[in-house]
UniProtKB/TrEMBL annotation:
Alphabetical list of Gene3D superfamilies matching this protein: ABC transporter type 1, transmembrane domain, P-loop containing nucleotide triphosphate hydrolases
Protein name as it appears in the record: ABC transporter
Residues in coiled coil: none
Location of the ABC transmembrane type-1 domain: 1-176
Main location: membrane
Domain ABC transporter: 222-485
Amino acid sequence: MSSFLAQVFKLLMQVIVLLISQPLLGLTLPACVVIVYVVQKWYLRTSRQLRRMELESQSAVYFNILETVSGVQTIRAFGWQDAIAKESSVSLNNSQRPVYLTRSLRRWLNVVLDAVVACIAVGTVWLAVAGALAAGSSQPIVKFTPSGGQVGVALNIILLTNTTLLRLIQQWTNLEVSLGAVARLREATHETPQEESLLEKSKNSIDPDIQLPANWPSSGEIDFSNVTASYNQDTPVLNEVNLCIKPGQVAVICGRTGSGKSSLLMSLLRLLTVRRTGKIAIDGIDLAGLRLDDIRERAFVTVSQDPFLLPGAGLRFHLDPTETLPNKALAEALKKTGLLSLFAGSSYDEADDASTDSLWDRALSSFPVLSAGQAQLLSITRALLQLQTRSSPSSGQYSDHDRGKRMPIILLDEITASLDAETESAVYDVVEEVFIKGRDGAGHTVLVVTHRPAALTKRLRPGQDVTVWMSNGKVERVDPVAVEN
Ligand SMILES: Nc1ncnc2c1ncn2[C@@H]1O[C@H](COP(=O)(O)OP(=O)(O)OP(=O)(O)O)[C@@H](O)[C@H]1O
């Protein structure tokens, strides 16, 4: 913007100096303005289109490079080198076409502006000659007789004006390109569905009559009544689900692939749209009338099928993103899931807490690469820590009588799918100790989605826990865990 303004003022000054040295050139000014206006209009319109084509064709090249880098092993294994090289060179050639056309357009602009300035220069020389002839004539063509110095200054300024005009139009194009980039970013941020806008929407649908107790959920009872839910508005993935899970109960959710097990958990987190004909209540409070952040931050601790890890982020961020827990708690949780020795390596000394101090701010990528199972264990460690932070309402926010213990519901979605039998058993040991039995003897409500219910059977409590069988988005049956004879 500043260089554009600099060119504008430069041009203004040059025109003023030119008019002082050759006032008659002022007559050509309207014609020049019209010509420059028409030329810049054509130039800008074309260069805008070319810039768009350039960006699109370049994105194909970048996409090609990224795809090749990430799939280089596959390319080598299948011997696709020639085909990929050909494809890359085609997209590179295509990306060069708009660049070439843009350069040609600039040259065209140069030539047109040169021609305009050449006309003005011819006019200046003509005025000078006519003025000189007028000096010896009885009937002068022009009454103005410029001095040699004035003609020199005018010609010099004319040459400079040409460059200034060219730069001005190019700066304007650059400004437009930059504004276009800003507009595209704005479009992306406004049109991509944002969690914040969902939160905003959910704020609008909050039921003002619901006074959410600070210790909600205090027991963890879940009641699905006639729940029909879908990802988009058309096909429901949950069909009239009726299910009641008692406080402290473990519900193992089983069923064929695509039967709606994960969707059942997602409907609790309001990641699915639940139709108004049904409702999901936790401890008697309908989730539809609550804020999304209240539901997700207070009511649930979730471990999903796919661990979400950011290699550039620190270990603490992965374990305790809100940075509320002391290092000791992080180390204890990692020890529980067997990951502490992996992260601390040989420097770990069980008797010395300080031996782990350097771990927490190190980026995850600086540790040995985690296997799928180890990544899943890290997610479970995070869940253990989340349970600690979510169980007690933060002290400053609530009055004393409100400050009971929360009992978040634990949602585990195929957490052992990528683990071997031995690690699976170790993980379920932790689940049993921390979630099912609870630290102080009061267990949490736990929903476990699994394809291998047998691995959990021995940890379920006869007469208390249940296995929920799902099929085609419906609850087919609920089997209580049988009492062993
Ligand atoms: N993001 C999504 N958008 C639209 N439909 C989806 C989405 N995720 C799942 N579905 C559909 O919802 C239905 C139930 O899927 P869901 O993931 O709940 O099944 P699942 O029983 O958990 O399967 P799996 O055992 O393979 O995890 C499927 O028909 C699937 O096509």
